[in-house]
Amino acid sequence: MPCLACPRLHLHIRKMTSQRKTSIRTCVACRTASDKNTLTRIVRTSDGEVRVDSTGRLPGRGAYRCGAKECLASAIKHNKLGRALRCEIPGPAIADLESLVVKNDDGK
Length: 108
Fold this sequence. Notes:
Elements lengths: L8 H9 L6 E3 L6 E3 L4 E5 L5 E4 L7 E5 L3 H9 L2 H6 L5 H16 L2
């Protein structure tokens, strides 16, 4: 029931009690939809550098991938990551991604 002071009070209460929405992103290799925070973001910056974005806030064209080792192999083999970023993926960037997967597999 709205009060006389604020006829839209019921809208204010609904906004305060609702939970915040989470961003859903899709892995470029396996096409699995997941929460943005569980995926790794790879970004191509404006100067053409490809690197891992640990904060999720770097400017540039981004692509997401899950932590599975098979997904990284598929993304590299079939050029899915390069297609999503619209550029050629250099060797050092692939090495960074592979080392990140090894760290995740070790549990560190």
